[in-house]
Amino acid sequence: SLLVDEVDGASKSRAADCAAMSRDSNYDHHITIFSPAGKLYQVEYAIKCAGTASGLTSVAARGADSVVVVTQKKVPDRLVDPTSVTNIHKVTEKVAVLMTGRSADCRAQVTRLRYEANEFKFQYGYAMPVAALAKRIADVCQVYTQKASLRALASICILVAVDDEKGPQIFKVDPAGHYFPYFATAAGAKESEATNFLEKKADELGSYDKDQTIRFAIAALQSVLSADFKSTEIEALVLEKNERAKYLTEEDVDHHLNVLAETDL
How far apart are CA 72 and CA 24, in angstroms? Predict the structure, then answer.
């Protein structure tokens, strides 16, 4: 009798779970409708897609006077010109963005970022602070979750700059419209593993110079992917105070990789 009661209880529990899942599945067709569990499924799907669509992992870190973004570089087809493939874009000469997600959505987001930054400068006569740009693009992303006629963009933006007043800055914006400042952050397929690596060195980052910050970001990527990169397999950009955004050449990356191979970060 006791065994029968346990079986009946388990069956009822499974039936209740299936009923809840079936009921919730009716709420993932529209972006503006909450499920009974309080979820916006289409927004969650967009965030998941942004993290996994490209299969790449990206890292950003800020040191004492510089900020660095590093990501994998994968050319989708042997017939594609590799110089045309990038996930790191200049928004202005002193603001850059590292995009992760669906390539078409990323490109649209970069275009919007450049428009907002240049429109701000045209209206107010000075360059748009990176914090204001992050808030603006987060507001746009959030509006995309309110209207049934729009689709949330499956892209995650990591905006970086060296602010005149606040120094190195990193902001991360997701498809839901969340935006936060970070000391270091990651995005993409191995985001959680990279975040764990970054957290271990979070207290030391503020004292790193430019070269140390670059090597730390590359080491984070190597660690979570368990791979020794060639200089053609990663791309990086560095920003310093009163300097323009600078892409690292293959020779620069190769130099840092050689130093990393000889030292234990």
Answer: 37
Closest by Cα among 252, 189, 249 to 221: 189
- Pair of tokens at residue 2: 């006791």
Could you tell me which of 96, 60, 90, 58 has the C-alpha nearest to residue 74? 58
Give the integer Cα–Cα distance in Å for 213 and 204: 10
Three-state DSSP class for 181? strand
If one counts every other C-beta atom within 10 angstroms of the C-beta of residue 235, the result is 21
Q: How far is residue 252's CA from residue 218's CA, in Å, rounded to a whole number?
A: 12
pLDDT digits (tens, 9 = 90+) for 4-48: 344 455 565 665 555 555 556 677 777 778 888 888 888 999 999
* pLDDT class of 265 with cuts at 50, 70, 90: low
Distance in angstroms (rounded) separating the CA atoms of residues 93 and 216 = 24
- Separation between Cα atoms, residue 131 and residue 159, nearest integer Å: 9
Residue with the two structure tokens 């060639």: 230
8 A C-beta contact, residue 84 and residue 74: no
pTM: 0.87
User: Which H or E run contains 179?
Assistant: strand 179-181
Strands of 95-101's sheet in order across: 88-92, 95-101, 155-163, 167-173, 179-181
Instruction: Please give the full DSSP string across 114-151, using - where no structure is assigned.
Output: HHHHHHHHHHHSSPPPHHHHHHHHHHHHHHTTT-TT--
Concatenated DSSP letters of 7-69: HHHHHHHHHHHHHHHHHHHTTSS-TT---TTS--HHHHHHHHHHHHSS--EEEEEE-SSEEEE
